[in-house]
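Changelog excerpt

This revision adds worked examples to the README so contributors can see how folded entries look when concatenated. The first example is reproduced verbatim below.
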Amino acid sequence: MKFLFNIYYLLRGIHGGDFIRSRNVMRKIKVKSGEKVFDAGCGVGLYSLRIAYNGAQVVGGDLSPLFKYSLVFGDAKLTKRLDFIIMDLNCTPIKSESFDKILCV
């Protein structure tokens, strides 16, 4: 997973605030194993991977198909807990109350 973080920050440019924000977001959402989490606007799937690492089932949605790199670089065990869909958040195909938590960063 560390490799994915490195690729992400190289492609995006390194911003120290991103590391701090990522750590703070993960602390605040307090994901428990077995929870269902929707990562709205997931981008490359950085948070989706971290949430799956904590044992949750994750669905990430974004207009950009960049999340496919998370599936390539992520651990095979993690990718079993991940699903990604190309979608516009204005027209969400997600049913109401189908997730325990929703993340939109």
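The second example, added in the same revision:
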Amino acid sequence: MAKLRDHASDLDLENQGVWVPWRAGIQLRIARAGRKAHNECVQRLGRAHRGLIRMDTPEARAKVTEVTHRAAAESLLLDWKNVEDDDGNPLPYTAEVGYRYLSDEAFRDLYEFVTVTANDATVYLQDLREDALGN
């Protein structure tokens, strides 16, 4: 037997994001996919292209990809730490900078990590947070 409470999502974590390690000391703050803010972001970004997106053409598929990458940059990946630009200067996170990397095929591992993490319900479980805090 198990208590359902042990499997409840921490809604604050889902919305504010969870800091997770990626590579080389980089930390990413990732919010949960499918929450209201994420769904609204996808709808807002796709609204202007609704007719095109309904088609099954290479242009439509490219637009869907653009929308999903932009939505990931705006509402899934919320921040990062320990990221530098090519000159070694700190690179602050913005949705536009995030989109530039998440949409770059050379950084497809980053995009995949963000989306897989955002879709992993266990990352946002209340009991895991309580365990980490020592409660």
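Reviewer comment on example two: The helical segments are 11-16, 36-47, 50-53, 58-75, 95-102, 108-118, 126-132. Strands lie at 18-21, 27-30, 77-81.
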